[in-house]
Design brief:
214 residues, mainly alpha, elongated
Length: 214
């Protein structure tokens, strides 16, 4: 089976109803992966999406293809939140704050186990989505740092780890009980990023290269 390129994945589809069905499947899968984990039956996803099983398999020939599309969709939405922050002309650190809270709402931590699963983490769709997120977040942070509002001893990896860890527990662990605390704890973290720093952090800033180390 030939692997689709990022351009093919994002290419407009000729039939509006087919596009709507695909979006409904991805939305339903994202919700159920967060609630139950990546092994939720595809039949249940089809039922929530309001489509037949054949429609699911016509769009996604196997579970890996669907998981990959969900992860890419969340990364795309996270990158869009960063782009929106960059488009703002006001306070640079407040733009960073709004991005972090928006990224948490995308339930990144619930998707982490899927990114580390057996499917190809170097698939071109995933690589393109990841690069877009990373470059946008770096630019948001660089702007806040240039304004003298972001401490100098943190990097993109620090922010992404915090968002993933603080946004919710792993999927399938009654994680919705944590929702009332997510933005409260994220704001505590964000206050610690402000410059001038009140303390010296142990270790060194976490870069994206550090996160990719095996």
């Amino acid at each position: 089976m030939q692997t689709a390129t990022p351009e093919q994945r994002k290419a407009p589809r000729p039939r509006a109803d087919a596009l709507r069905n695909r979006e409904r499947i991805v939305t339903a899968a994202r919700e159920m992966f967060v609630e139950h984990g990546p092994e939720v039956p595809l039949d249940e996803i089809a039922r929530r999406a309001g489509v037949g099983n054949a429609t699911v398999y016509r769009n996604f020939p196997d579970r890996d293809a669907l998981v990959r599309e969900v992860v890419c969709s969340v990364m795309d939405r996270t990158a869009a939140a960063a782009e929106l922050a960059l488009a703002e002309t006001g306070d640079a650190f407040e733009a960073l704050e709004r991005f972090v809270h928006a990224a948490a709402d995308e339930r990144i931590s619930a998707l982490c186990p899927m990114v580390s699963s057996t499917f190809d983490k170097h698939h071109p769709d995933l690589e393109a989505a990841r690069e877009r997120v990373e470059s946008q977040v770096a630019e948001v942070m660089d702007r806040a740092r240039a304004a003298g509002q972001l401490r100098s001893d943190v990097d993109v990896g620090d922010v992404m780890i915090a968002v993933a860890q603080l946004s919710r527990p792993p999927a399938g662990t009654d994680c919705f009980r944590a929702d009332p605390f997510v933005h409260r704890h994220l704001q505590l973290f964000l206050d610690g990023l402000r410059a001038p720093a009140r303390s010296v952090l142990p270790g060194t800033a976490v870069t994206l290269e550090d996160l990719r180390q095996p």
